[in-house]
Sequence to fold (173 residues):
Amino acid sequence: MNCRRQGGKTAMDHYPERTGIVSAMEKIVEWAIALMLGVMVVNIGVAVFSRYVLNHSFPWAEELGRYLMIWIGYLGASLAMKSDEHIGLTAIVSALPAKLRKWVVIASRIIVEVFLIVILVNSFKHLDTLSIQRSSAMEIPMVIPYFSVTVGSFLMAVEELIHIVQGVRKSAA
Fold:
């Protein structure tokens, strides 16, 4: 979130400070990502050491790294949504008149919100089936890695909803 843009401002300088449940949720996500990243680094370090020094590989190490990376990606996407750092066609939107620009941004955010809700709803439908399947190496229920889609879409939908409400309030003022 310390990514600097033009004029020395971060993307978050445009948004009010978050409080309450949303702020707590974001802190939990940040800590979860840090913890998962730490576990992933240790996991990969141990796997490389055991494979090349001890000449023994752990079959679960690659699978654990893969699932941690998936979780980090989805949780990180929600933080990118918070700070408005996802890829966008800003050149086209910036060329629009100010009043139209505000409403185009709100409309695009609503489209993204609908898309995230569709992903969220559909991800719930698959969780029941995935609770039966097991991963090949660690033999954990496949619902654990796939639940990252559900959690990530929910968190992104919350962040996008906050942006929509803030955009409508700014436009109405």
Remarks:
- Residues 9-172 form one domain.
- Confidence is low (pLDDT under 50) at residues 1-6, 9-13.
- The radius of gyration is 20 Å.
